[in-house]
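INTERNAL AUDIT FORM
Audit reference: QA-55
Scope: verify that the stored structure record matches its stored sequence.
Auditor: D.O.
Record contents follow.
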Amino acid sequence: MWAYFRRTNVILFITLQGCFLVILTIIAYGYSYNWQDVFERYQEDQVKVNAFKMIDDIRNEELLTGPFTDEQKAWLNRRATLYGVLIRYGSDRQTIWFDMFSRIENPKVAAIQEYPVVAKGTNRGLLQVAYFKQMDKLDPSFLAYQSMMDRRSALLFGIAALLSIAVSYFISRQLSENWNRLKETAGQIRAGDRDVRVPIRGPEEVRQLAVTLNDLSAELKKQEDWRHHLMEDLTHELRTPMTSMLSQLEAMIDGIYEVDIQWLQQIYDELIRLSRLMTDMEKLSEAEAARFTVHIKRVNMINLAEQVYRNFLPMAKSKDIKLRFMNPNVPCYAEVDRDKMVQVVSNIVSNAVKYTNPGGMITLGVDWRPETTIIYCHDTGIGIGPQDLPYVFNRLYRADKSRSRFSGGVGLGLSIAKALAEAHDGTIELESEVGIGSHFRITVPNVYKS
């Protein structure tokens, strides 16, 4: 039962309906008060009109001064009752000739209005007029008016309440449908359907969530495809040398091949290839745990980068690639693990040498900032397409699968470099364009804080 009341459409309906009812109640009370105020103003205006009628009647009957006889008092009483008012008449507030107020105990009267009675330019008396509110309870016209206003108010309130229920239900249903649609899509993605997409419609927040969910589904599909290719590549990398060694050993056991140095050397090369693959996997595991094993010292980053530059000069020359070093000619010191940082830079430069064609150029340099040191490597190699850029630092990911296998790599160098850089609280950024080249930028803080 409580689960039902936790549903989005129920919560929205109750919230909207509650707000509508509060607003309608305020409007109903305001409406009733407004009409009551209008009616009281109307009564006050009527008292004023009837007061002037009484003055005219008093003048016509020549009842300007008292004291009055019983017959005259009866006449004044009839006229006042006819006009529906209470009157008090005298020469002033102290000298009273006729008084209807004193006949009623605790009278509830409207504000008393006073009017001078003037005849032939002379002030002959003071007429006080008021409306007896208790007469409303006996006045058929007032009772009919009040009943009519109550019926209209109840009718309007009922119609407004029904409309508010309909609007609340419609809005809550529409909004909850958007969330239900997102929930169903998320369930399909959870079940393994990576091709499902959410229609982008509804409120802006729902649209943004739909876009995010679609992007998540697309990203999961890419990751699954990548993991599938990863297993294929890893299986191939392991199967190829093992198949080759098994076939050669079987041939030597069966006597097809003689056991000589040439065949043993081929088997040895395949074992070296397997060992290199296992070593790279081990290095990646160590790199991801490097934050627990880094040995920080203050290191001259220019000397570090120049050492890597000298190590790769022979390899670059053998491929007819021009490798140059850009010295900033300013002191550049940072707190790093020298051996692991050398490995980071070496992996980046090695990757540049592998994917730069003969006649190309690789530039390795250092830049200094007050808080960080930057080591950059720019090459004129084959470049990386935009569809591969987000994944080049993933394990065993290779943008150019045909080249990497022949060049001896299995797609772990950049993963190791990224893990080691992050162990120093640093980052690796990559900008690349197919056919133009790539630009790697390694940024490490000058002061190690982890």
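Auditor finding: record pair retrieved intact. Residues 89 and 127 are 5 Å apart (CA to CA).
Action required: none
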